[in-house]
Amino acid sequence: MSASFKQYSVTTWVGLALFLLLILVPIWGYAAGQAFYVAFFARIVIYAIAVVALNLALGYGGLVSLGHALFLGLGSYSVALPAFYGIDNGWIHLLICVTSCAIVGLVTGAISLRTTGIGFIMITLAFAQMGYFLFVSLKQYGGDDGTSISDTSQFFGLNLGNVYTVYTVSLILLILFTWWMARLRVAPFGMVLRGARQNARRVNAVGFPARRYLLVSYVISAVVCGIAGMLLANLNAFASPSTLSWIISGDLVVMLVLGGLGTIFGPLFGAVAFLGLEEILKIFTAHWLAIFGLVIVMIGLLGRAGIVGFFESMSKPRKAAPKGGQA
């Protein structure tokens, strides 16, 4: 029995414990009548889903995207635009979300992947900004002021506009996506992605078209991020072009780096640390941004593995110092 427990790392135990606490949040919130905190943790869970999506492209594939806010925004407006015309069918919202994100992800990904490095970063950023200004120009839907959503998504009679419902659905999806990423990490598709991140030429040489694999991962990442945007729109009952801002894309990258690039629980740890710390600092000082930036720099110094790397270092056995007179 003890051997079976030892096969799990500290990171895994902390991640599972955090999921357990998140499962208890709506129970506590309902009992204590604290719907605000349920909404706050729902926001964390939804952003964690978006970071999981980015982790597939950036953590596994090495695609440094500053344009994932585009898909978050497309997901939000997949709810807002039909709701503007009184359509509250969640399946229609989901169909619009998946289709639009897949098509836009395919087109933008195919163009962006023709470049690498800083070129890829700038092109993805440019596409996101194009999407931002497109929705700003739609004055009939609120323009840069955004638009409220009176008809939130309905699935089997369940209204995602209810904070407890959207929290439960979001948490279930986060758990499923996290499990899927864990399986993908050791699956052939995931191993090709990670190989392409290290050396795309070698991957091509052994018969795997690296660019095609990266494009597929980018499209899947876009769709998952869009689903997160759809959930966010239902939580806020509001959609705004600010969701497509490059600042949001940067926040997603920071969350992933904080948690740990290419790790299983990194997106969850990063979203909790980023949004949780932000909320705590706002309580104590109006100059929270200065402290927040300093803390992010300190955590960033942990390296590529971020918070996950810190937990992994705790689980590694320390080497005993050699005794005097021995080599």
Automatic annotation (TrEMBL):
It is found in: Cell membrane. The keyword Calcium does not apply. It holds the Pfam family BPD_transp_2. It is a multi-pass membrane protein. The keyword Transmembrane helix applies. The chain crosses the membrane at residues 12-31, 37-58, 65-85, 91-111, 118-138, 164-182, 213-233, 253-277, 289-311. CDD domains: TM_PBP1_LivM_like. This is Branched-chain amino acid ABC transporter permease.
